[in-house]
Amino acid sequence: MQATRQLAGSTRVALRKLVSSFIPILIAGLGWHLYGYAQVKPKSSSKVPGEDSYASCHDNVSGKLVGPDQRRTFVLESPDGRYRAYAETTAVTYKRKNAQGDEEVECENKTGLFVAGPQNQKFRQVMSVLPRATLSGNSISLVDWSRQGHQLLIGEGLWGYGSDFGGTEIRIYDADSGTLSSESFVEEAFRKYARKECMGVYQPAGFSEDGEIIVKAGPYFDEGEEQPRPESCMAKEGIWRIGPAQDAIRQLPDDYVPKHYGKEEPRKAAP
To answer: Positive or negative CA dihedral for 226, 19, 170, 263?
Structure first.
């Protein structure tokens, strides 16, 4: 089983055997690929209070098909307690015929983001992630709420079962306005900053005190290559801050650690 280098070679992942220490993110104008994600539940080494809704029809260790699965994150509450959110993923099996005409059992996911607010304490679904033709796996990771303004930072995970293609897109849900950011706003911010197409690996880390998002970013390497792709904007891994205007972007010291503002509700309080 091949291992893949991510974020300037600091992390190597063996599919279905080794779990990555973070959820790397690649968003590129020409396409994006994340190796080592399929059928493996990532674990975060950061102190982010959120959680991932990852669910799979396959056993994480053996890779064997074990059947339908469902996972719901804990409820993450905004700092002032006015909003609460959780994500839920359902993985189901279905049958299809392969190129040889033989019947195979496959797996696909459906994921939803649910939010409850001050006007209505009942949770309602505000976002859904559906299986795609080559990316039938998906999940949502709750990263954090902003200190003010009721913005929720999430990671939208996408991958292909039985393959090493996939990725996670950084998104923000604004609970006050009920709006969701585009799937490419981080990539667009780096493209404006670099003034060219920008390929990279991005990890959401949290919010700054004044509401800008914090992202860990690094160059993108093709599998087995020692040099990053020419489209990579960064020479090495770093911590970056992106403002709401998307072009307000700057690099932070390497030892910068964001604070986290969301509060986890006890498991028994989940709906």
So the answer is: negative
Higher pLDDT, 69 or 63: 69
What SS3 class is residue 69? Answer: strand
**pLDDT tens digits for range 194-242:** 888 888 888 899 999 999 999 999 888 877 777 877 788 788 899 999 9
What is the spatial distance between Cα 37 and Cα 222, in angstroms, rounded to a whole number? 15
Whole-angstrom distance, CA of residue 48 vs CA of residue 203: 12
**Residue linked to tokens 């891994």:** 237
Question: Measuring CA to CA, how many Å separate 4 from each of 33, 59, 62, 232, 239?
Answer: 11, 21, 19, 17, 22
pTM of the model: 0.78
CA distance 8 to 97: 40
Helix (H) / strand (E) element for 87: namely strand 84-97
